[in-house]
Amino acid sequence: MKVATLPCCRVTVAVIAVTLLFLGVAQPDERYDFRSSQAYKDLSEADSEKLEKAHQDMILLWGALDMYADHNEGKLPETLDELAPGYLRMLPKDPFATEATAKEAPTHGYVSSRKGWGYRYRKGAPGNRAWVISSVGLPDFPYLAQRGNVGLYICKGTWISGINPMMMKDRD
Asked: What pTM was computed for the model?
């Protein structure tokens, strides 16, 4: 499947990218590292340890989701709980989860794992190999970028304002 694109969209994206580079907002080949942020330096030792564990867990879950999709014709599980024991011996616990957060009902299409004690997960649109994995901790932390995207989450695929658009077939 291919995503339908319009030539004018590619030009617009290129103009935005060049503008951001010119303004110094984006740097080519320079990835943001949350560990270099002032917010990271200001964390307590306990919170920085939890953040490192959450970072490691989310990368582990990403790999397990990819393997699951590889073995299931690109389909994703309904919940992260489906990854254990087939892809992970045990699903990781969110180090920021508490009794109070475990009782909270997830919002915005997320599904909890480990009865609220694990990470939250959201699948993309049908047919897309896209997802978001989220922690309940540090909701204002600049994890993915210095400004804008705050909170502990990683995503795969294209997400626009919290929506993963449907894939479209080219019209030939």
From this structure: 0.77
